[in-house]
Recover the amino acids of this structure.
């Protein structure tokens, strides 16, 4: 009976490990000026197509030394830091709830130009290709069809969920 119980416990434990849900996929990025050059984050992004409502990215950085801003493609390409769509000054976990390509940069002087920027592609699990992020031609942020969820991460690893919605067309 003892041996059968041990086998049963081992099978249940193995099944629990193998039955990991998609919602458990959380990627962690050390958010800093990349020592490997401007292509570092682009290479990471090329290897990771993310699923909406499933995946999330934790951007880890030192408060006061970095920040994270969501910007348009035009601002991403030109490293324009003056008018972000959204900005966070503390480490944060971001999960997107709408398919598309979303552009993140650091707004500290010179950081984006030195490669601290990433374009992330988010798809439905059945979608073939992401839609582009809204361009700077939108007149107000409330007109952007964008919604995403974020969680603040404190030093002890606890996460405070912050929900941010820009626009309402989801």
């Amino acid at each position: 009976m003892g041996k059968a119980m041990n086998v049963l416990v081992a099978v249940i434990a193995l099944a629990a490990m193998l039955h990991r849900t998609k919602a458990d996929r959380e990627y962690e990025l050390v958010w800093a000026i990349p020592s490997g050059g401007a292509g570092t984050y682009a290479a990471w992004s090329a290897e990771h197509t993310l699923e909406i409502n499933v995946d999330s990215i934790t951007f880890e950085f030192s408060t006061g030394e970095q920040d994270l801003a969501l910007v348009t493609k035009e601002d991403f390409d030109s490293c324009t830091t003056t008018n972000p769509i959204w900005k966070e000054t503390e480490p944060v976990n971001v999960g997107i709830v709408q398919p598309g390509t979303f552009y993140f940069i650091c707004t500290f002087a010179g950081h984006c130009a030195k490669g601290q920027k990433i374009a992330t592609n988010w798809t439905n699990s059945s979608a073939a290709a992401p839609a582009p992020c809204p361009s700077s031609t939108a007149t107000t942020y409330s007109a952007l069809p964008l919604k995403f969820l974020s969680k603040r991460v404190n030093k002890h690893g606890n996460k405070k969920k912050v929900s941010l919605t820009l626009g309402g067309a989801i």
About this structure: Helices lie at 2-18, 39-47, 73-78.
